[in-house]
Amino acid sequence: MTVPVRPAFHEGQVLAAADLAATVGHARAAAARHARLLHDWGIADGLGLTEESRTDPATGVRFVEVSVSEGMAVDGTGRELVVPAPVVLAEADFAAVNGADQPTAEPYPVFLARPSGHRAPRGSGRAA
Fold first, then answer.
1. Is residue 119 scored above 80 in pLDDT?
2. Rounded to whole angstroms, how far apart are CA atoms 83 and 2?
3. H-helix or E-strand spanning residue 37
């Protein structure tokens, strides 16, 4: 196992952007290791699902709009997944992920994922 190196500075040193990024990256990686190794993964707060019956004004077709409330979860690798404000879930996402192409009374699983292009902190021991 590679031990993370904590950035160290001295009085009067001129700091570059990379120095500050290393300091922030070290703190983020430490928090991720803490969450991954000392706590269980799952929902920490919020992230409730709500449903509201709606009618498409153009077609008159009734449907259910599903939203996830703000909150935070920790995934199995210690990354925090934060939803800062309620989000309406797109019907197309259910069809793409769950194969939910037919109406049903059965529950659909809902998963959180970080946005594509998001990178893991340096030194966290995880691939980006």
1. no
2. 32
3. helix 17-38
